[in-house]
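I'll show a typical protein example:
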Amino acid sequence: MVWNVRTVSRLMNDEHDRELQRAALELTTGGGAISYSVSHPPPPHHYHHNKNDNAAMPEQPYFSSFKGEKSAYTKHIHSAPSTTLGGSNPMTRSASLQEQERQFPWTLNTSMQQQQQKKTSPRVVSTNDTITKVKPPPFCTRQQIQSGTWVQEWLPQPPYISHTKHLRCILQNGLEVNKTNFNKSATSQQLLFPYWTWQPFDAAPVAAASSSSASSSSSASSSSSLCEWTRWNATTFCDTMKYVTLSIIGDSLSWEQYSSLLQLLGERVHQMDQHKSKSEHRNHKQRACHAAAGGTSIVFRNDPYLKHVNESIQQDFPLVLVLNRGAHYVPNDELLHDLRHYTIPHLQTWQHICQRRLGLPCLLYWRTTVPGHVQCHEFSQPVTNREAMEARVANQSLYTPLQRTYHWQDFSEQNQLVLQLLEQSGLHFQVLDAYHLNILRPDGHRVQDQDCLHNCYPGNMDVYNTLLLHFLRMQRSAQDVELLEQMVTTRVFAAKKKAKQQQQHQQRLNATASAEQES
């Protein structure tokens, strides 16, 4: 297999700006080609997942938005060791790659040079006549996020209203989440929407939001909290993901995250697009963040067994990738075999290309799988006892004969097996702990459809995008965003200059030809 200008597709897809498309594509491919044998994937690069999930993550850059302040929390970037492609012998850089380094030295590993540890001033808080320097808490780690509870808020409006009627949540009072029941222009007393948000115990409490998700507070932090937990904020997401393609690959549960993300960003989603992705063997892509310069491309691929990850990456080359194996049970040996042979080698190559060609990390997120909740109609709110709910899921006497074929009781073990395999692969990845959070959400399913696996909108799946934004703020620094924007705009300028030169050259040729005809 050859990764070249045809196979490594657009980094940023904007149908309304062809020059930006071309610039992003050229940045991704670097104008050259990289070949490797799938049977001998490139060795994992210097990034790795911390095998001790309970260990605190390294300090990361703090920013509520990229226009805001930064603190002393900067991520640790190490120099990449020498790596090889396609075998054990060191790979000699191609002439085209050397030429790229000479002409555009900032396209390779510049971000690592820019992101060395820097010390910045802490926040300054004024209290009466005293000025106190407050050091913001570090971001909550995976372990800290796992330990928390669901907190109910009362919003004047739902975060969004699904355009697909049968997917909308039904409230306890029997009302459907629709525009009639939650009318923004209503002058009479308006209903409040009950919305559950996740709250880690170590994070500062968050005041109930008084508006939609797009205008809610982006984070909760105080000098007394042990860690900072991110609240969903559409503006922060768009600023963080400027010019970036994000791909979500998996089954219908991954579609829930994809659909939730677009709707949280104010976009309309068509439910049938997930089925077209599977039947037509292609990516489904939508643009979002139109207000931000550059925008963001969000891609979904219906691939329950993750056997076509490579095809999806080639169609729309992402800088951020969210994977989930889905609820389609197979025995443990088959599960691990398929991941080893059809998924992990291509992820290793994808991360290597990003690091070598762009000098930017390809961010991989693995979302753990949440089982269905047997007899979910008995619940109208979250529970607090994870062990009791796990015991209920494991209790086969509660299942119908059809539900027993789903193997919901095996999802917890398979989550651990997959994470162990990813750790051994050397991939740099982060875990979106959907299981630990939503095992506590037997409510919020599509009870009206007698479906105790899938969720109604807006609902349980929204927290996946809060988790994603939280880790994006930790891992995608302001320098990453600025560097990518610089790359794209510089390429656009060069493309415009080249096009103008070609136009002038053609005009001279036309003038010469006309003069010869007259003579």
Q: What stands out?
A: The longest strand covers residues 148-155. The first helix runs from residue 18 to 29. Residues 1-18, 29-126, 208-223 have pLDDT under 50 and may be disordered. The chain is about 35% helix and 15% strand.
